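Usage

Read records sequentially. Each one opens with the input sequence:
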Amino acid sequence: MGVVYRATERYTGREVAVKILHRKFLPGSVERVRFLREAQALATVSHPNIVKVFDMGFDAVGHPFVVMELLDGQTLAELIADGTVDESLAVAITIGLLGALTAVHAAGIVHRDIKPGNIIVGTVGGERMVKLVDFGLSRRFGEDDRLTASGVALGTPPYMSPEQIMGEQVGPSSDVYSVGCTLFELLAGRPPYDLRDSRSVAALFRRIIDEPPPIIDELRPDVLPEVSRIVSRALHRDRSVRYSDCQSMRRALVEAIGEHRGSGIPARLSLTPEAVTQRTGEAGDAS
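and closes with the structure output:
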């Protein structure tokens, strides 16, 4: 939909990323509306784990652009493709992601496209950070989505919640489901419902709606029981059983770390903007 360029600001010397909508998308097109929606959403929410927007506007011929912080790193999709991800790293990444989404939801926005390809682990100011990017499918709570053709659900199939697939109203619990899919894939190397195991996208959708998700420790026995339970709850087909919001899921992961200080999961998570300093057995939130 857009092209991203590496650029240097003339007066500050700061290196930035400039995303420009492809010129083939005319005013009024779905792609143009989504591009502007993404820029507005990113400008609305400020959080260390969300890519920063410095400027936005239109070029000389009226094509929109966004100036963002430049991220040097790799997507989670690339990280997963490189091989098995250590459980401590997977949990650290997820805690950072959940912190970002807590801020997104507090602004009244649901992301709707959480997946490994939209999350970057990179270096910012010499520190490793998790960054959530791509808000093209985001929308405000309760907003009617006029960008969807009749009967077509928006999202990336393996990471879509049952309610998103069925075209129902989605909120924070739908993003919780997608985070569960992402954590599952970080640990297992594949999403809970893999398109490669289904004959078609329609068949994949039926599995997501009708079949209970696999249990992570059946695929990776070394995963902590508490982490396995957290993943299973996040992936529950009934959204009333899932964590009601990302803050609750984040707190559960932090508590799991505190209870297993000797498990190899670090007390301090350098991938998050703040340290997790719980002592063994203590519950609490690291926000």
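Summary fields computed downstream for this record:
- The CA atoms of residues 112 and 138 lie 6 Å apart.
- The chain has a mean pLDDT of 83.
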